[in-house]
């Protein structure tokens, strides 16, 4: 709707991207996991962003009075470096994750790696070819699209002290909150224990579950949650190892008329989860080093340092917000954190590309002015891609199950 015909071509490009990704996964016999789906969401988001970058440039070229063919050529040429740099920085992280991580995080890395390759193909070749066909064979002379970029120039850098103070307060608050919650931050994947899901003819409440757990003398050692999926209500118990069967037996004894039955019952060893998390953390650290080196080569060291600080800033505050609302970190959530890191570096590189372009072209003004201009020039794209990603995750949050809801949060 926003880009009209160009938007329709972008959707065709995204469809090709998705088919290529699933085809590559089938070719190499990769299995799709929940973190793998997280990787697909990130690659689709990045593919959308690549098209938005091109269309933003196309709008600028058309405003400069160029013909559609000349404007398209200029748009793809100018957007090329931002698309390549943004995708390659994420690709570095995903390849290192694939080499170093294990378990579900490896599934995330596989889909992310294949998805980035497919998304670059669809953004740089598929849509451009469709445009060429329409201009050469279909007689397309002009395209129309909306423009939500604010016309007013905001002095972002002028508010840097307030922004830094606000960010530091949020980061410290997140770290303090995480430290206070301690073990409660970690789900069964890291703590180990039994995971029991039960359903009943007359649905059980958290209070019913708590009554049974207290009768068994477990107290706060057991975490009880109500999970709704469609019209089905499942009561889940995360409890110390070897206690799941006792809870089920006690529920059936306490509520015989409700026909209580287990929908899922499993035991998870804490050591395995911690090992996965440790390897994922180590891989992410190596990924950050890879990004530091790449951005230093493509831009300069101060830019690279800024990019890494931005990633850490976004991840820490997100984990703090998750802890504030009583969330539990699982291996799926590790995939979510990696997704946030991917989006963060992608956004940062897009702004950096504009700053580099201004510096190379010899545009006058202080570095503060050039940075402000770069942020303002990419503001429409930031609002659009951020808004579209928000719509996607809101859909998952509202209609997804309990695990997907935590990931979407």
How is this fold's topology laid out?
Layout: H1 5-27, H2 34-63, H3 68-100, H4 104-136, H5 160-181, H6 188-191, E1 193-199, H7 206-215, E2 223-229, E3 232-239, H8 244-254, E4 261-268, H9 270-298, H10 301-324, H11 331-361, H12 367-377, H13 379-399, H14 402-408
Helix pairs in contact: 1-2, 1-4, 2-3, 2-4, 2-11, 2-13, 3-4, 3-9, 3-11, 5-10, 9-10, 10-11, 11-12, 11-14, 13-14
Question: What does this protein look like?
Answer:
The protein has 409 residues and is an alpha+beta fold. It has 14 helices and four strands. A four-stranded antiparallel sheet has the order 2-3-1-4. A hairpin with a 2-residue loop joins strand 2 and strand 3. Helix 2 runs antiparallel to helix 3, helix 5 crosses helix 10 and helix 11 packs across helix 12. It is elongated and about 80 Å long. The model has no long low-confidence stretch (mean pLDDT 85).
Instruction: Look at the helices and sheets and give the structural class.
Output: alpha+beta
Main sheet attributes: strand count, strand direction, barrel closure: 4 strands, antiparallel
What's the total number of strands? Answer: 4
* Order of SSEs: HHHHHHEHEEHEHHHHHH
DSSP helical segment count: 14
What is the topology, as strand order, of the major beta sheet? 2-3-1-4
Mean pLDDT: 85
Shape: elongated
Low-confidence stretches: none
Rg over CA atoms, rounded to whole Å, is: 24 Å
Task: Specify the helix fraction band.
Answer: over 70%
């Amino acid at each position: 709707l926003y880009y009209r015909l160009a938007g329709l071509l972008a959707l065709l490009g995204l469809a090709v991207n998705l088919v290529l990704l699933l085809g590559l996964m089938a070719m190499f016999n990769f299995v799709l996991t929940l973190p793998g789906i997280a990787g697909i969401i990130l690659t689709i988001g990045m593919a959308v962003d690549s098209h938005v970058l091109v269309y933003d440039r196309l709008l600028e070229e058309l405003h400069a009075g160029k013909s559609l063919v000349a404007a398209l050529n200029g748009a793809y040429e100018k957007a090329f470096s931002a698309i390549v740099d943004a995708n390659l920085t994420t690709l570095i992280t995903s390849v290192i994750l694939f080499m170093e991580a294990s378990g579900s995080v490896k599934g995330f890395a596989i889909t992310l790696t294949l998805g980035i390759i497919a998304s670059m193909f669809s953004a740089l070749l598929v849509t451009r070819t469709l445009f060429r066909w329409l201009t050469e064979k279909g007689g397309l002379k002009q395209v129309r699209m909306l423009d939500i970029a604010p016309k007013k120039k905001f002095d972002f850098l002028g508010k840097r002290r307030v922004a830094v103070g606000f960010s530091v307060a949020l980061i410290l608050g997140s770290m303090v909150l995480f430290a206070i919650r301690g073990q409660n931050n970690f789900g069964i994947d890291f703590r180990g224990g039994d995971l029991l899901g039960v359903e009943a003819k007359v649905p059980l409440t958290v209070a019913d579950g708590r009554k049974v757990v207290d009768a068994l003398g477990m107290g706060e050692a057991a975490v009880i949650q109500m999970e709704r999926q469609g019209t089905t209500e499942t009561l889940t118990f995360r409890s110390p190892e070897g206690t799941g069967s006792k809870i089920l037996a006690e529920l059936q004894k306490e509520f015989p008329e409700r026909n209580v039955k287990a929908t899922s019952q499993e035991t998870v060893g804490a050591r395995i989860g911690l090992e996965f998390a440790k390897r994922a953390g180590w891989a992410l650290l190596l990924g950050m080093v890879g990004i530091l080196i790449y951005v230093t080569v493509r831009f300069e060291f101060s830019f690279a340092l800024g990019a890494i600080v931005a990633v850490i800033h976004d991840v820490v505050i997100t984990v703090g917000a998750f802890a504030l609302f009583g969330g539990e970190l699982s291996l799926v959530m590790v995939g979510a954190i990696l997704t946030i890191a991917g989006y963060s570096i992608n956004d940062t590189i897009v702004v950096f590309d504009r700053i580099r372009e201004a510096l190379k072209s010899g545009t006058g003004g202080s570095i503060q002015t050039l940075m402000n201009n770069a942020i303002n020039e990419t503001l429409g794209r930031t609002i659009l891609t951020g808004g579209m990603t928000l719509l996607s995750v809101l859909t998952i949050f509202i209609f997804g199950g309990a695990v997907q809801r935590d990931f979407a949060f």
